[in-house]
Amino acid sequence: MKCYQKVIELDPKHAKAYFNLGFLYASMRDYAHGEEMFTKVVALSPGFLDEAYFNLAVMQRGQGKTEASLTSMEQAVAVNPGNSAAAEYLKRWKEER
What pTM value is reported for the model? Predict the structure, then answer.
């Protein structure tokens, strides 16, 4: 975590560092901090934007933010219709409503 935080300190627009830091927070089930990191990735709009939206949706869902998570997952699919994992999660989550 310290390494990614240092990278962000040196380059506040380093999307991969935010993404990886978000993933580390997710692995610790710290969904609020994970959401914060993935929100920053989305704002930077990198080439892996669909993955950032996907992970943002998972962080939001982990906090019970159902509508926000659906919106984020819809964005993941909109950015990359070929993201079959995002499409499947979106379908499942909508069915659970």
Answer: 0.96
